[in-house]
TrEMBL record:
This is Methionine synthase reductase. Its cofactor is FMN; FAD. PROSITE patterns: FAD_FR, FLAVODOXIN_LIKE. It is found in: Cytoplasm.
Amino acid sequence: MCCDSKRRFLLLYATQKGQAKAIAEEISQQAGAHGLEADIHCLSEVDKYNLETEKDPVVIVISTTGTGEPPDTARKFVKKIQDTTLPPDHFAHLQYGLLGLGDSEYMFFCNGGKTVDRRLQELGAQHFYDTGLADDCVGLELVVDPWIDGLWLALKKALLLQKEKEGMNSVVDAVSSSLSAAPHVVHELNLCSEVQNLRLKDEGTRSSDVLSQNLDDINLVAPDRNTEPSLVHSVPPVSQSALNVPALPPEYIEVQFQDTCAENPHLSSLTSEGTTFEVPVTKAVQLTREDAIKTALLLELDISDTVFDYEPGDAFCVICPNNASEVEELLHILGLSEKGDDFVCVNVKQGTKKKGASRPQHIPERSTLKFILTWCLEIRAIPKKAFLRALVECTSDPGEKRRLQELCSRQGASDYTRFIRDSSVCFLDLLNAFPSCKPSLNLLIEHLPKLQARSYSVSSSNLYQPGKLCFVFNIVEFPACPARPVSRKGVCTGWLAELVAPLLHPSKNTLDTKGESSSTVKISIFPRPNNTFHLPADPSIPFMMVGPGTGISPFIGFLQHRQKLREQHTDWEFGETWLFFGCRHQDRDYLFKQLRSFLENGTLTHLKVCFSRDSSTAEVAPPKYVQDVIRLYAKDVARVLLKQRGYCYVCGDKKHMADGVSDAVVDILCMEMETDRLEAMKILAMLREEKRYLQDVWS
């Protein structure tokens, strides 16, 4: 039970990469200043809360992952509440407010939160506060900050109503006095990405949980009027503002170095996904020419000695480490270069003020320091504002301290978005930019999120290549910029490229290349099945595939599988197949030229390709992008999708391709059905609902 001076509410979160957890912890931190106490738990901790009997208000913060799924930590909860035998009044006693996190770059924006919200409503639960949907595409804080600001009055009103129902007059009086002392705030907000237009009137309730930092506290040299702002430098009005800085998060982790020797945990302990498999890489082929803008690699894994199973269209995850040189650089900055191989013991700090503090699940209780920094923490993570606030206390230079305060303040929100979030500035970049910042090791463990395994689409068929699993990826490049003095490669793609370098054969552009070596290179993987992005169960149904660049990856598996089925079942009827593929240059990055063989043996009925950067001498310029090619075959698209009830699969970049393909399909439906655009969009939505227009996209 909470002490009498507090008013309890249940705070639940479900997170994939740590965002929802960080926001929930911020809510928990602020609650005390409002006379409230948060009983905070992850949705997966079902033994620590019970919604069936919960009487107090419930606040839920939940993110979205994949193509609109709830995060892994919410899967069991969602499955439980989606039980169709539950009565419509199952949660009639429940009052809740929900904050969903998502990214409008993806089709099913905030679908994790929307799914939970919709189902709770269907089961009779009532909102005590409007649902907020925060968009990571424009900045979560644009919705998160005002949503939290309005939460406190809504909670107090909900608690007041709850206690009135229970007839606890003494508590009613206490909460009433709290309400009367607080300024009025309109909390029925239209919480969308335009939330910057909101004018919140509860500034009086914030003073106890933010630090107002005045310029008088720091000796700063007035900047030149013409100076442009940067990561390390601000200009008016930010540089001349008193700042509303978040409350300092309490430290809760204690790290102790030990003299004893032991073994580091096995990599399989780093994931809660079930079985992991350590498998050899048997082949590596560079599919692009050396002068291509992007470098694409194909890797073949030997899974014959495992029970790993997959279908074409599935994905799987690779457990990858941070870059070794970056780990060494971080150790050097922390002054721990000589301690990297020492074992450390990580525990909760005694007497911490953080409620419900526990050692992060992704941090082993005992391991070497280098193991934690290499395999457990995402040192490339973009620092959250709470982390910046904690780093302020570790910074000795007054100017650097002030700038970090600005970047985590409300007044510096646009600077944070521009110079940290949009510039993909990571923790290491930040330490290089602010050299007087010397954080403690426990601070890193408290604030850096778990190093996530990276997901890749399968590019093969177990039927076509038994015991083999192939996948294709571009080596991600982060070029140098003012905030990042050195270029970096993607955490996983850069590691894989370095790992398989001995396997790469000089001959390129063919799957038949024998890029093999006597030395055994192994990686750890685990399955990530896709429930929908699969071939039609009925082979007679026609389908279209749209996959420019590495978006073609799952379709190679589709075609291999279809070819084998045709060979094994000569009496079956097979529907027509279309593939729309595009790349920059025909001679540099046409990833799978053997697509012609699928065309020649009848597995592929139609192959349509385009090359966006090749010049043409033709009188009529050829189409540059797959969405342009699709428009040329409007009647066929309409016939396959509408008359023959076929499927359309789209894989690749969302912003620059998948949205363009969707627009092209809508235009085709408008034209071929002689209807308006709104009606055509409804038809496309219906195709999505029927799982006949399917996307596997990334931003």
